[in-house]
Amino acid sequence: SCNLRDSKITHSGFAALKAKDAIVDTIRDSFGRRPDVDTRSPGLLINLHLVRNHCTVSLDTSGASLDKRGYRLDKKEAPLRETLAAAMIELSGWDGSIPLLDPMCGSGTIPVEAALKASRRAPGLTRPAFGFQRWSSFDPVLWNAVLKEAQEQSLESLPVAIHGADMSASALDMARKNADRAGVGGLVSFSRAGIGESVPSQPPGILLCNPPYGVRLGDEESLKLLYKKLGDTMKKSFQGYTAYVLTGNPVLASCVGLRPSRRIVLFNGPIECRLLKYEIY
Questions:
Q1: What is the CA radius of gyration of the chain?
Q2: What are the pLDDT digits (tens) for 36-48?
Q3: Fewer CB within 10 Å: C terminus or N terminus of the chain?
Q4: In-domain check, residue 126
Q5: Rounded to an integer, what distance in angstroms lies between the CA atom of residue 247 and that of residue 251?
């Protein structure tokens, strides 16, 4: 890959081509033949960063982006990235000692990430491969030992409930499959329920959710009632809980009808959002 900024070379394709030629020519000079390059599935990924005419060349250890844990194969519309869900959980301060509920869980990313954290399960265990595994210096014996150590520290049960609810049967089917692929199928539960139908565990607890926020034209009006119902449900049924709601629409956020005690700026892709904290008494 190639990234350019404030440099005399302004075409990333040209810079990438020149870097590729230099690399393969050096290999040819050293080993007597020029390697073939599979542009669709390269064996070795090299990153080129050119900033103010200063070039940094680095090897990509990851391969596929690290936000792709490997468990989410089915894609529900506008899914929450795994890393953003994990960040929301960290920012909430949840440590696995109290219940966690997502009343609009969709394909289950928040409950799955919560279960990974609480069970001490390394999020990369379900990835099919990393980029460094194709390096000539890769040590499979050491790697297998590291994998075994990570697997052995995982907990098989949790002392608290992690639950996701949604109105969509197809989304819940994806959520259960994702949880199974992540290795936490026995640590989370899912149910088909509307926002007002979710039954919380005894407080204290955490409500954490990412409701839709009307990116498409015309969605906003229909979502105002959804946000109002979320706020009404929190006030009625979740006394003693702390709620965190991620939204990219301040108008919809105002429909919750509660004053947030904290606002944290996060980005869901290119969309600037707020993670809103509500103390429910």
A1: 23
A2: 877 777 778 888 8
A3: C
A4: no
A5: 10
